[in-house]
């Protein structure tokens, strides 16, 4: 926490107010939460002061849930609506962004997955060894009779998916732990992984189902999302620039405002 007082436009923001605001800023440390809170309050003060200087009368403004905003929030909304004007993202701009970032607009690989989890503590070598042996036994049984997968999942799996015969539905990258995904995505459609797969949950017997290959999305399917993203980014840049101008004019010390 900074030892210097936070001063905006010649007025100090009290340490008590910063401490109260810090509760709204989860952070890795108390110091980081304090700095985030001080920055938020400094920006808020800059905007409210400017709205009052311009003698704005916001009237009653409501949030998305229909609840009336506080006077300060209403002033800030009115100020930004009055002072921040950004262009709409036209067809050519959206198309250019689409063409320059094809990797962002690809439907991911999807693989239907099922597993049987033999639970064990990865830190316990003996327990993991036993679990691996059990998984190997299950794999051998399934190689002899693949139709038993759902039955064995219901009776042997420690995962709640046992109630669905071990079925996990369609899986894409980032949804499962890494060893599980690496094994699953390496399998062809409708295949049993020949080896047990260890993870932080224990040992898995994994079976793949239908695969839907990754494929580029057409521009028409993502045009609205691109426009929303570009317009939001433009708005955020404009607000940041506006706050920087207000900070330079009013004077801010004791806190560093993000660029």
Write structural notes for this entry.
It is built from eight helices and nine strands. The relative contact order is 0.16. The strands form three sheets. It has a four-stranded antiparallel sheet, with helices on both faces. α1 (15-22) crosses α2 (30-53) and α2 crosses α3. By secondary structure, the protein is an alpha+beta fold. The chain starts with 5 loop residues before the first strand and ends in a 6-residue tail after the last strand. It has helices at residues 15-22, 30-53, 71-83, 91-100, 125-144, 149-156, 178-186, 219-250; strands at residues 6-8, 11-13, 106-107, 110-119, 167-171, 197-199, 202-212, 215-216, 252-253.
Kindly summarize this structure in a few lines.
The chain has helices spanning 15-22, 30-53, 71-83, 91-100, 125-144, 149-156, 178-186, 219-250, and strands at 6-8, 11-13, 106-107, 110-119, 167-171, 197-199, 202-212, 215-216, 252-253. The chain is of the alpha+beta class.
Q: What's the arrangement of secondary structure elements?
A:
Elements: E1 6-8, E2 11-13, H1 15-22, H2 30-53, H3 71-83, H4 91-100, E3 106-107, E4 110-119, H5 125-144, H6 149-156, E5 167-171, H7 178-186, E6 197-199, E7 202-212, E8 215-216, H8 219-250, E9 252-253
Antiparallel strand pairs: 1-2, 1-9, 3-8, 4-5, 4-7, 6-7
């Amino acid at each position: 926490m900074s030892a210097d007082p936070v001063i905006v436009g010649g007025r100090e923001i009290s340490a008590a107010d910063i401490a109260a605001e810090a509760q709204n800023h989860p952070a890795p440390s108390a110091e980081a939460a304090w700095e985030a809170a001080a920055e938020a309050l400094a920006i808020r003060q800059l905007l409210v002061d400017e709205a009052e200087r311009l003698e704005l009368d916001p009237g009653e403004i409501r949030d998305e849930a229909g609840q009336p905003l506080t006077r300060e929030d209403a002033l800030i909304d009115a100020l930004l609506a009055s002072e921040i004007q950004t262009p709409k993202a036209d067809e050519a701009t959206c198309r250019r962004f689409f063409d320059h970032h094809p990797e962002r607009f690809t439907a991911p690989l999807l693989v239907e997955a099922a597993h049987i989890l033999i639970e064990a503590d990865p830190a316990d070598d003996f327990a993991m060894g036993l679990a691996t042996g059990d998984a190997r036994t299950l794999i051998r049984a399934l190689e002899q009779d693949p139709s038993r997968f759902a039955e064995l999942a219901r009776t042997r799996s420690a995962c709640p998916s046992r109630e669905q015969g071990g079925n996990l539905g369609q899986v894409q990258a980032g949804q499962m732990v890494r060893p599980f995904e690496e094994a699953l995505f390496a399998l062809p459609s409708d295949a049993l992984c020949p080896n047990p797969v260890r993870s932080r949950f224990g040992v898995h017997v994994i079976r793949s189902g239908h695969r839907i290959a990754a494929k580029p999305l057409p521009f028409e399917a993502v045009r609205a999302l691109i426009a929303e993203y570009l317009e939001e980014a433009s708005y955020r840049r404009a607000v940041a620039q506006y706050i920087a101008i207000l900070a330079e004019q009013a004077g801010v010390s004791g806190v560093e405002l993000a660029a």
